[in-house]
Please model this.
Amino acid sequence: MTTRITTPVELRQQGFTALVAALGWVDAVRFIQQYEAGRGNYAQERYQFLPDWDAETLVRKAREGVPL
Model:
């Protein structure tokens, strides 16, 4: 006899656990991503929140521990 799932949180947790058991972690995530259409245009919007650094500056900042 199975116990009835009573909360949305429990349903999501058990559902994802079942997906991971059946598909593996990576494919379970890929499966879930198929149902999220996404929004906006990352290629255009990234310029609003990413710094305008070249690769050399990025490496230097990372070594200095500067947060992005």
Remarks:
- The two ends are 51 Å apart (CA to CA).
- The chain has a mean pLDDT of 87.
